[in-house]
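Q: What does the predicted 3D structure of TetR/AcrR family transcriptional regulator look like?
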Amino acid sequence: MVQRKGSLKERQRQEREQYILQAAEEIMLEKGYHHTSMDEIADRVGIAKGTLYLHFTRKEELAYALVEPKLNMFLESVQQARAYNGTAQEKLIYLLEKEMSGAFFQFMLRSDPDLASVFKAQQQRIDGLIAEIFGGIGKILDEGKEAGLFDRELPNEMMAFQFINMFDPHLYLKMVEQQQMSKETFIRHVAKVYLRGIER
């Protein structure tokens, strides 16, 4: 098979970009978003700063490139939860268990809170993903309402928002890491609190 001209160069470029993202994630988790410099990322990868800017023109763009695939993985988990063979409650618990160990939650758990500024800078790009995630959770909630399991008077938007709030890292850090509650026990408790609030 004849290799297309430039394919090796493109593969090398993609590999270098993955090294950049890996180094950026390591440094941001170590030092926080605002204390991470493009110079430091370039040094860790072993490339010139100018080469780094060929891949990412700004630090915000680089940080978003770390977050976006993790959000896509969250969306994929929502889709898997919808297809899960169980009741609406079991689907929500499945999603909760899966994403508490998922890349997005674990990244946000270890990230400096100032990384939230990246979401504001990329709001238009991220809104579509967030809408799909909420929409998928809404479909599960609709299923639960139709089965007579969930309170029909509660708006789906409110129920979905409260579900997403269970992924707030602060409570997890306090209960699991500071008070040494097992992750399984934590998930069981937050699921019980949530489901009791939306069930009929």
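A (community wiki): The structure tokens above were generated from the sequence. Residues 1-57 form a domain with the Arc Repressor Mutant, subunit A fold (CATH 1.10.10.60). The mean pLDDT is 90.
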